[in-house]
Amino acid sequence: MLRSSDEIRFKILEELRKSTINSFFQLTRLVGTSFITIKNNCLALEKYGFIEITKIDKDNSPSKKTSFKISITDEGLRFLENIKQKKGDMK
Q1: pTM
Q2: With left for phi above 0 and alpha for psi between -120 and 50, is residue 32 left, alpha or beta?
């Protein structure tokens, strides 16, 4: 099923609201889309200020591989709640 970028970004924000994610791959499983789609949408959400992506150097990572901590910002939480309210108003 083809989903819009808005739907994917909304799902990413919902997953990040639940907890901080430690990899793009983890988000691919949770959201159900490809790695490149997740990464591109996360980069766009970061530009909007809705999420924060922190690179964890392999020397500081338990897996000894470079990884990323992805978390929702306060602005992202406000945006998500605003969207949820608008969806509720449309019903």
Answers
A1: 0.86
A2: left
